[in-house]
Specification:
Layout (H helix, E strand, L loop, with lengths): L5 E6 L5 H9 L4 E6 L4 H7 L3 E4 L25 E4 L1 H9 L3 E14 L1 E2 L14 E12 L5 E5 L7 E4 L4 E4 L11 H12 L8 H16 L3 E5 L4 H14 L3 E7 L7 H13 L3 E5 L1 H7 L6 H20 L5 E5 L4 H9 L16 H5 L2 E3 L7 H10 L4 H4 L19 H20 L8 E15 L2 E14 L7 E2 L4 H14 L3 E6 L13
Parallel strand pairs: 1-2, 1-3, 3-4, 4-10, 11-12, 11-14, 12-13, 14-15, 17-19
Antiparallel strand pairs: 5-7, 6-8, 8-9, 9-10, 16-17, 17-18
Helix pairs in contact: 5-6, 5-12, 6-12, 14-15
The chain binds xanthosine-5'-monophosphate.
């Protein structure tokens, strides 16, 4: 049972489903995405203030179209259908939905014809974002047409008595100028929500729940120093104090001084005791002669488990493992079809809980990364630490292309530090989602002074993204590129060429391996 005002977003496969959940949370209302196949009973148990039916890629008449459990429409809970969600509503209430000759995609202007609670204060003729194949030609019974556009004469409908609203366009997309207002209207005017989902409330509740769950037993935390595990550790410490055991495994693949800085930060700010395991040599010995990216990833994952497990065995009264799993990870793994291709084996602490018979605590299972960052700041973790760029579990091993040796890692560490320091110097570090350097496994000819050089090439990568699933390369000023390239080549022995990666994801990935 939820103690919050919750809005359920039922997922019919739209690429915008996560965005709907985000937009709701931005209004300080809790939202949760659930599969469209969820049972009515489960919905009732969650006691939501409202339900949103997402868009979806199919036509409601396709054989394999995800269907709505139509009893949901009779629960007397306010409903908002978006695009495909609208067509499901129309179909249920005997309206007519037909395939359009041409898919409507892009901007349109809406004309408000009836001021329903959902759109009463929306500016007339404002831009909305359309992306649909089917459309409604006959109004469902007892519904009114509230808005139209040039190509969609029925573009917003409602049945105020039943508290059911539906839109052909996407209010969650930034192109819909009044989208935020529409979502707000749904939350506060239609569903009568209270804005009670705040980072401070989250922390308070999480602490109560964790205390209740762990009941004075010991909890282990694999503290990498990344944002998610760091915030999880501090939250856990607030909840259970001395019962938290943090273990930091230095795999020798970290950035320059990373382990030292992480441990100092926690000791200084939180008096958090961390068991530091220096396993650099072991990891590097296992990686000797390995160049295949997936093999590197597997070796690192397995070695991590082995090292961590050896340490954890020393505490025989541990019952839980805390992980900083985020909401997009949960949704990804829940929706990944069995036919999907494995692109990369991501290394987290996966595999550990089962192997060691530990129960999991995942305080951020329902949060997005920027929400975790807000919580981190509220818990007193320094801003610059909480807003650091993401860093992959296998560390520099997937950025040192070819064989991973200590010398090659050291070289890359020096380059990486110059790159990151330069981003700070030009005041662009926080404008970029992730930036790093890659050491290529080739040598090129250069000239330094009067002498020929034959040295390594560095590729710089900088991208913007919201969740790492897609990414766009960052458009640096030439002045910056010139500065950073000169600085790297002049200061790092062994590098005579710097190139900039201008590929987006897809079709590339963010990391090179
Ligand atoms: P890719 O290279 O798959 O990366 O486009 C997407 C994001 O994930 C990070 N990444 C990882 N993070 N363990 C992690 O925790 C991993 O094994 C891993 N591999 C890639 C990558 O840095 C980027 O932010």
């Amino acid at each position: 049972m939820n103690i919050h005002n919750t809005i359920i977003v039922l997922d019919f496969g739209s690429q915008y489903t996560q965005l709907i959940a985000r937009r709701i949370r931005e209004q300080n209302v809790h939202s949760i995405i659930l599969p469209s196949s969820i049972s009515v009973q489960e919905i009732i148990e969650m006691n939501p203030k409202g339900i949103i039916l997402s868009g979806g890629p199919t036509s409601v008449y396709d054989n394999n179209a995800p269907q709505l459990n139509e009893a949901i429409l009779e629960l007397n809970i306010p409903i908002l259908g978006i695009c495909y969600g609208m067509q499901l509503i129309a179909k249920h209430f005997n309206g007519k939905v037909v395939p359009a000759e041409k898919r409507e995609y892009g901007k349109a202007n809406i004309e408000i014809t009836n001021k329903s609670l959902l759109i009463n204060n929306v500016e007339n003729n404002s831009v909305v974002w359309m992306s649909h194949g089917d459309y409604i030609t006959e109004l469902p019974k007892d519904f009114s047409v509230d808005a139209k556009t040039e190509n969609s004469p029925i573009c917003a409908i409602s049945n105020a008595n039943k508290n059911i609203y539906a839109l052909q366009f996407h209010p969650e997309v930034a192109h819909t100028k009044e989208g935020k207002k529409i979502i707000k209207n749904f939350l506060f005017d239609v569903c009568k929500c209270q804005p009670d989902w705040t980072p401070a409330n989250f922390i308070e509740e999480a602490i109560t729940n964790i205390k209740e769950k762990t009941k004075n037993r010991k909890v282990l935390c694999a503290l990498s120093g990344g944002v998610d595990s760091s915030v999880a550790a501090v939250l856990m410490q607030k909840a259970i104090g001395e019962n938290l055991i943090c273990v930091h495994v230095d795999n020798g693949l970290m950035r320059k001084n990373e382990s030292k800085n992480v441990i100092e930060m926690f000791e200084k700010n939180f008096n958090l005791k961390i068991i530091h395991i220096d396993a650099g040599e072991l990891f590097l010995s296992r990686l000797k002669n390995v160049i295949e990216p997936e093999e590197k990833r597997k070796i690192i994952g397995n070695t991590f488990i082995e090292v961590f497990e050896n340490e954890a065995k020393k505490f025989d009264d541990v019952e839980y493992l805390v992980q900083g799993t985020l909401y997009p990870d949960v949704i990804e793994s829940a929706s990944a079809g069995s036919g999907s291709h494995k692109i990369k084996t991501h290394h987290n602490v996966g595999g550990l809980p089962e192997k060691m018979n530990l129960k999991l605590i995942e305080p951020f299972r329902e949060l997005f990364k920027d929400e975790v960052r807000q919580i981190g700041e509220l818990l007193g973790i320094p801003h610059e630490f909480v807003h650091r760029h993401p860093f992959p579990g296998p560390g520099l091993a997937v950025r040192v292309l070819g064989e991973v040796t200590k010398e090659r890692c050291d070289l890359l560490r020096d380059v990486d530090q110059i790159f990151i320091d330069s981003l700070h110097k030009f005041d662009i570090y926080y404008k970029i989602w992730q930036a790093f350097a890659v050491l290529l496994p080739i040598q090129t000819v250069g000239v330094m002074g009067d002498a020929r050089t034959y040295e390594s090439v560095i590729a710089l990568r900088a991208v913007n993204s919201t969740d790492g699933m897609t990414a766009d390369w960052y458009k640096f000023e030439n002045e910056f590129l010139e500065y950073v390239s000169n600085k790297i080549i002049r200061n790092v022995t062994g590098v005579n060429r710097v190139v900039y990666d201008i590929s987006s994801k897809p079709p590339s990935t963010i990391e090179w391996e």
